[in-house]
């Protein structure tokens, strides 16, 4: 028995050694790198600046909120729906407003009767042939009673108009023809007018044409010029190449909001934002998507002088404000 146990342990040890040697050689085996399906995007321009571009609606992304806090009664649209201008998007509960309107309407009837009574009483004083038959104090008192009755009626009518306006405003409508990009509410939820709780309830925009907002590092802003050609590439598929058409240069150099995570990136950087456009129909691209954009620019060693300065200086478009 002892000899069998001895041989068994020797066999186990030998198997362990062979397995360890196998694992060492297996781990040292070189694995073939995964094939590159799409090469990294390359700028088509000799001199260029690169930036990250975010797709947005041509009208900009409109964050639709609520005129006042209230429970949501109905939601008429879903993400992706196309709607016309003034089409209802969602409706707030109007039971409280309708109850107030009913109360004000009843109050209006009372105010009208009170005003008419005061008119009749004051007309007696006006028809008196002998003005000395009543004291000036009584005459003035009746006159001001009529004025008060008329003002109270006007106040009640104003409350009715305000309530009717709020009932109309309880149905939130599309500001233009466009597409519903996102819906962030449901029936019976409390629609808050607080942007810190929900930045928007419905995200909306005109998507017949896409705009792309390109962030250019402030250190490269001096190289940018108006009407410069630009090309965008879809991340993950550099074969999708989009020629962009210039729209505008935002005159304000804004703080960079979204950071890429690169260790070399400064958190206090500011960016110049360029606006370009393209037709949406030809490409599988969506609002909010990030693209790599290359914009033709002046050479990095370009130097200004008195002769060429006016060629590149920023000129604001002239618009007549009427």
Task: Describe this structure as you would to a colleague.
- The protein is of the alpha+beta class and 322 residues long.
- Among the domains are: 48-58 and 207-299, Beta Barrel (Elongation Factor Tu (Ef-tu), domain 3); 94-169.
- Helix content is 30%, strand content 27%.
- The protein has 4 helices and 15 strands.
- It has helices at 2-27, 95-127, 136-169, 309-312; strands at 48-57, 62-64, 70-75, 82-83, 88-92, 171-173, 178-183, 190-191, 202-205, 209-217, 230-234, 237-249, 254-255, 270-279, 290-296.
- The radius of gyration is 37 Å and the shape is elongated.
- Mean pLDDT is 84; it is low at 311-322.
Key features of this structure:
single chain, 322 residues, alpha+beta, Elongation Factor Tu (Ef-tu), domain 3, 6-stranded antiparallel barrel, 27% strand, elongated, disordered C terminus
Summarize the structure.
With 322 residues, the chain is of the alpha+beta class. The protein has four helices and 15 strands. It is elongated, with a radius of gyration of 37 Å.
